[in-house]
Amino acid sequence: MPTRLRHMSGHALSSADTARYARQIRLSGFGPQAQSALLNSHVLVIGAGGLGAPVLTYLAAAGVGRISIVDPDTVELSNLHRQFIHSEARVGHRKVESAKQRMGELNSTLDIITHPVLLTPDNALDLIGDVDIVIDGSDNFATRYLANDACEILEKPLVWGTILGFDGQVAVFDTTQGSTLRDLYPVVPAPGSVPDCATAGVLGALCGSIGAAMAMETIKILTGIGSPLYNAVSIHSSLDASWESVPVGRIPHRDPVRDLESHLGDYGAEHGEHGVHENGLSSGTSAGTDPSVTWANIAPGTHLVDIRDDEEVSGGMVPGAQHIPIDALLADPGQIADQEPVALYCRSGVRSSRACAQLRAQGADVTSVSGGYLAYLSLPR
Q1: CATH code at 89?
Q2: Are 186 and 242 within one domain?
C-alpha cells in the first residue's frame, strides 16, 4: 500500500537513526524505507490527554519527524492516573508544553510544535492543511465532528478514537477511501447526552489500549504497511478483552462536506463566536431552554460560577468566578438566587449546558459559557 507522504525519500537515515530505530527497521516489511517515511512525516494530534498521551509517546518514540499538538488545557492532578505523559511537577502547566518536554526527553531529534488553543472553525483548516494525517484524541463531539469535516474538505486521513466506561472504539476516516465519522454517526449527539470521563469515570489502562491502537493505525498509514482500519470501526471491550470489527459504509447519496460554515450548528455551540447571535443565544436555541454565551458575549455584571469538581479547579479558574460543584448547585439552586444573571462554565461546556437547562426550567436566569474553561484558556493573552 502506498504511503500518504509527499516526499518519502526526503530523509536519508543517519547512523544515529539506524541505531535508535534498529528494532523496528529490522521488522520484515518495514525496513529503512518505512523509517524514512516516519521521519519525513508531519502529524497533528488533537488533545494531549488520556488518548493523546499514548499516541504522542509512541509516535515520538517511533520517530515521526514533526508532531503538532493542539490542546488549550492545563495539567490537573486528576489527569495523572491516565495521562502518563505528564507528571506531578507539571500540574498547572499547559498540557502541550508538558507533553513537548516529555517527548523531547524521549526523542530530542523531533520537531514538536505546540498550539495551546481549541480547534475551532476559524483555525481548523489552517492547522490541518499542512499535515499528512490527523489523530483525534479529543473528548467532545463538537471537536470530533469539526476535525472530521475539516479532514474531509482537505482529503486528509483522520485516526479517531473514543472511550466510554470500560469500552473503546478506533477507526480511520478518509473520504478518499470511503466512510467518515458522519457515516458512522450521522446525527450529532446533543451536548450533555453522553457523559464525559469527568462524569462517568475512566481507567488509564483503557486509554493506553485505545491510544496504542490509534498510534499503530497512524504508523500503518504513514509507512504503507498492513491494512489500515478504513470503512470499519474496531470496538474493544476491556472487561472481556475482546475486539470486534464492524463494517462502516458510506451513506448512499450523503452530501460531502465542502465547507465548515454550513455545519456550524454541529460544532458552533462549543467553539468561539460561531452559532451565537447578537442577543447572546446560540443559534437553534430558544430563550426558555439552554442559551449559551461566549466569553466575549458575557454581559457586564454577570456572576460567573465554575461548576467543575474540586480537583479540576486546582489547576486554575477564571478570576472572580465563584466555585460551586455541579451536584451542589443542582441540589441547592438558592446559592445563586441573589446573584442573577449568572453564567455557568465547566471544562468544555457540556456539563454547564446540562445544568443551565435544568436551572432555567426552574426559572433561574442563567446561561452556559460555550467551550467552558478550555475556551477561556484559548483567549489571546
Answers
A1: 3.40.50.720
A2: yes
